[in-house]
């Protein structure tokens, strides 16, 4: 007995079972906390981006209007995310040219780079294969593959962020749901996958909702967005879906590099490029200041939400199926759609809810739920390319999904589950091994399988 604490707990099998049960309860509790953080930050990210867009419009209203040549390029009064740098004109005088400010994308990249810190890349990760994390990531083959993937993700993120800053959040979440359509096209044309009739019906419903929402949106003005913004979001969503295929192949070819390490490395590369661009081409040359509310409040919030969103995804990885993810994505669309009406309708009429917009959103949500429910295997975290991450850093989630698929491949290739777990958990603590063994025992299929899942 322990003085002041009563008798010691009973030893033996019953005591061990009790301890395991308590650990499982604590783990389940943290999983639900992570799920809540994942859903909440996914709802808040597009709303913060809308706040950045509208605060930029308000802060720049007192500035002189852009010159005629800027109007011809699509730059309107109030486009604060476009900075004006001096260039020499033909007559020797100086005019201005538009320079896009990529601060929102920089926030996403910083959050992506910090995933490793929030999910515990430390000595346990270093000892897993006997050499430091940096050494594994910067090997010749690994470095080339990760740089190639980072380039595609960089272009995808840039297109999405530029488009998101030109369309309201209520329209953005609907447009970004086109990832499901693009994934189906890639699976059908490139990967020769066959989709079920239910999924084709779901894709048709999503396409109709997207077209209806884009047609009913009153775009064309800086407050209501632009047609170029719609096209940018759709192009970024397509590259987002393509990134899934490339990420899965990259992770499969790099067995010594974990998805978290690769994600953090890619985020660091993208953040370095964006930071250099912001300092040398935007912040120092731009006569138009950024609103203090953006710099001091909104951009740090965006960075924090992105980091928590990605880290919580890694924590819940393998514990929820595609149906749960589809429900979360549908809820995200509804929450953002209604919240944008409550928060921003008075400042931007394009965020106001109308009957036609509501009908289009309902159609898209029903299509998303049907697409998820039609998954014949109902396992893994989500279907490839579901676009559940509204943030621009798509590889943050996609490489995590590819990692779980790699585990499934290792299990099905003849390697026993316990050997696979032992290899992955070498040098790790008991809790990490338990998480990996649980995923391995369940098969953890994410990108493989039939019914239109991406399988390279």
From TrEMBL:
Residues that span the membrane, as ranges: 28-48, 102-121, 146-165, 171-190, 197-216, 228-247, 259-277, 297-318
Keywords from the named record: Membrane, Transmembrane, Transmembrane helix
Superkingdom of the source species: Eukaryota
Compositional bias annotation for Basic and acidic residues: 420-433
Biased composition (Gly residues): 441-456
Annotated Gene Ontology cellular component terms: membrane
Region (Disordered): 1-20, 404-456
Comp. bias intervals (Low complexity): 7-17
InterPro entries: EmrE-like
Name used for this protein in its record: EamA domain-containing protein
